[in-house]
Amino acid sequence: xxxxxxxxxxxxxxxxxxxxxxxxxxxxxxxxxxxxxxxxxxxxxxxxxxxxxxxxxxxxxxxxxxxxxxxxxxxxxxxxxxxxxxxxxxxxxxxxxxxxxxxxxxxxxxxxxxxxxxxxxxxxxxxxxxxxxxxxxxxxxxxxxxxxxxxxxxxxxxxxxxxxxxxxxxxxxxxxxxxxxxxxxxxxxxxxxxxxxxxxxxxxxxxxxxxxxxxxxxxxxxxxxxxxxxxxxxxxxxxxxxxxxxxxxxxxxxxxxxxxxxxxxxxxxxxxxxxxxxxxxxxxxxxxxxxxxxxxxxxxxxxxxxxxxxxxxxxxxxxxxxxx
Length: 324
Known about the structure:
The protein is of the alpha+beta class. Helices cover 59% and strands 8% of the residues. It has 12 helices and 5 strands. Strands 4-3-2-1-5 form a 5-stranded antiparallel β-sheet. Helix 7 (152-179) runs antiparallel to helix 8 (189-229).
């Protein structure tokens, strides 16, 4: 008896809660996780794309020379799409979009990219002997950017964006029509496509972003450890902690949104008592009773009296019908 009472109380509380005013505000809470998710994803993908403040500090790995010569203060920083040439001796930073614009197999592209990243060092006649080593660092960075890190994080962000966009037709094509239909009503093919597209985009984006975070963290750490312990290595690599923190924070807020997404997509059925409680519902019900009564009166149909509830009901008398 106690379990039945508890279940009934919980069911009554849930019904009163979803039709109460507080539920409308609670449904907006998951939407607050979208803003930091999008912000952190954009910052992670825009690393090393420009020389704006803090952008050169967002890199996956930084390549430095193991020698103590001219290139000891230079770094080649890699983002997902950008590349930065940093010279700590004079504080110069040159960043540009490198992925897809320069071919690692083209020597001319390597020379051009090196000149754009380190213009002062290339034009310095005293540093001519270090140019081949600098070009080797740029070539290694292009290979890593093109073949190792790839575009996994961008794919996950794109799928998540598609899922968010699909929430708009989901609201108008699925939520609102289902709210007026009884429970158990099957979805149409169009509604099924919209619903699956919304969930698939968000869940797929979450899993791919998670894979990108793990892959980047493990790969950058392995490269840094390997180059530091290999004897005779001319290039040392250091992982970028700031970018990893940003993309893990993006995954965290995305995960929170996915956990609370059923609250946003919850189909709130219309309260059956609304038609009696609202003035429009009362007018519509009263008009329906009056219309039915007038039609029965014109047709000569007699309604059953109170004897239906206490005894045998009266027989309807329909004109032109001889049956009793």
